[in-house]
Input
Amino acid sequence: MVATHRPHRDAPSTDRALRITVPGEWAEIVGALLMDRLGSYEDVDAEEGSRTLVFYPDTQATGRVDRRTVERLLPHEPSLRASLSVEWERVPRDWVDGWRRHFRPLTVGRLYLRPPWEPPAAAGLVDVVINPGLAFGTGLHPTTRGVLSLLQEGTGGTSRRAAPEGGRAAEPVSGGLAGETPVGAADPGTASVGAADAGTGVAHARPAPVGAASRIPLVDVGTGSGILAIAGAKLGYAPVRAFDHDPLAVQAAAANAAANGVEVEVWADDLLEVPLQVFAGAVVLANLTLGPVTALLRRVATLAGGGGDQAGAAPRRLLVSGILAGAQERAVVEVAGEAGFVSVNTYREGEWVSIDLQPVLG
Output
């Protein structure tokens, strides 16, 4: 796998690369976990049985990155920790500058995702700017695209590239790296926003509604760069709230929200400690991994009618991702059923699956 984001060339720290070597069987999972914190990466050959993931994080945005930083983001798996190697290396400046010419904006449905040096979206697309110097996740990973696609879809049992009988293909994706084949054309939409107050931890604006999303609350769990929350705000969801256990991610999300002129309340919190009422009646976005996704489902079970004073105030939708097709997908659907939710829509890209879960109607 070769991922496609590297930092803005004007960031002083972009002439250094972070090389993380892991057992080969862990490479895809580790890459997906770290991509939302360190930006995208290259997957290169290492010694037999190992893979090296090469990241280009902007340490002005992320702060110091060392082995301890990386370990905090990874599972507590002895076989992974024992073989983990984390080291920095210098990269030629002309090579870093040259990559920028190959990074192109990405269109996901009506959303136009771009770095700040690219021109704004054409009329009919919703412009979302993510600064790679700050971003922990840029929309280039299939899990992020999956959530963004499902967010723009209604219900009805659709999936991407493998639509169920009677369904239609989900929102197409185009753009990305030079040479990448677009999946299809975009579905246009419009949005406008007010001015941002970049001097606070929350960006203030008046997001314009786009269709039925108007005034529906949205919560982004483990927000990273804030890309999902920002897209939701630009599509008209309000209020938009986002949290992450990593304070650096909170800072990045707040900065990106301000740069996009949208109002997003961002704070540091833990999935297991955040008040349940945060999720009540909201569209909840959770681009995580299997463990946190199932933990989220079990937490909101009472909101879906499993008992207690909060029964009946279920999230409108749970858009979950970071799930591998097959056993992980089946596990999520099973836990969702136990929690009072049913899968109504899926997005598939390669081995990754994003699922739209909605409460079972009594």
